[in-house]
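User: Run a structure prediction on this.
Assistant: Running it now.
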Amino acid sequence: MDVSLPRRIRSLPPMIRAIGLRGIRQWLQLQTLMDSKHPVKPHYYLFTIATLPEKLGQGVGGSLMKPMTDRFDKQNVGAYLENSRTANLPFYHRHGFEVTEEIQLPNDGPPMWLMWREPRSI
């Protein structure tokens, strides 16, 4: 994902309020790492998907994901995401995503799984 410099600058004040000045350096390191791993070929980037804990296992996530995977397939375009929870791996596998790389985030951060989904023939 290519995020413009002006957009990144605009994001700094709320980021500083959220994580403080000390956290900015770590955030910039993380952003640089993630940017270096992001695919360059055309693709959809899934930034976030979430389900309330009390709704887990009820098909909500799948209902959110299906229109997107249908779009990827119809347009014959791949999709990329970064997953930070081991528990989410089976969900993404069910929707056609495969781990392309596992990285350890800096400063004792959690592992992150980079995942790619090839479009399926429809």
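The helical segments are 5-37, 60-75, 89-94.
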